[in-house]
Design a protein that fits this description.
Strand order of the largest sheet: 1-2-3-4-5-6
Radius of gyration: 13 Å
Strand content: 25-35%
CATH architecture: 2-Layer Sandwich
Shape: globular
CATH class: Alpha Beta
Number of strands: 6
Helix content: 25-40%
Structural class: alpha/beta
Order of helices and strands: EEEHEHEHEH
Distance between the termini: 37 Å
CATH superfamily: STAS domain
Number of helices: 4
Length: about 130
């Protein structure tokens, strides 16, 4: 059952549990105004005991550097709790942002949430973050 955690005029965030993963779906703009709300929502989920996340960006219409910054901040917090993070449903335009920022190599990126959640999470998958494991 999908649960809304943030409702804002330009963005909504909801989550659902799938195969041990907390799939967080962002719908709308991720910018300087909405990024702090996303961070607070993710921290709340972590504080509630969620550890393994799939961040679904399929409905993100805009993301700036603050959006990338909030993803890095959330990743750091998840790592501190020995969790894991996968990114899903990234558009070609968004993938280019990950490439230009150098963040693409630091994340497992999947074409869809369904593919990201096929295998159960493994603790410690962020051990090498922010550097890719080779």
């Amino acid at each position: 059952m999908r649960t809304n955690i943030i409702r804002h005029e330009s963005m909504m965030v909801s989550y659902d549990g799938v195969n041990g993963w907390t799939v967080v779906e962002v719908d709308g703009e991720v910018d300087a105004h909405t990024a702090p709300m996303i961070r607070e929502g993710a921290i709340k989920l972590i504080d509630e005991g969620h550890r393994h996340f799939v961040l679904d960006l399929g409905f993100v219409t805009f993301m700036d550097s603050m959006g990338l910054g909030v993803i890095a901040a959330i990743t750091k917090r998840i790592r501190e709790h020995e969790g894991s993070l996968r990114i899903a449903s990234v558009s070609a335009r968004m993938l280019r942002i990950f490439d230009l920022s150098g963040m693409r190599e630091s994340y497992e990126i999947y074409p869809s949430s369904a593919e990201a959640t096929q295998s159960a999470p493994s603790p410690g998958s962020l051990t090498h973050w922010p550097h890719p494991s080779s």
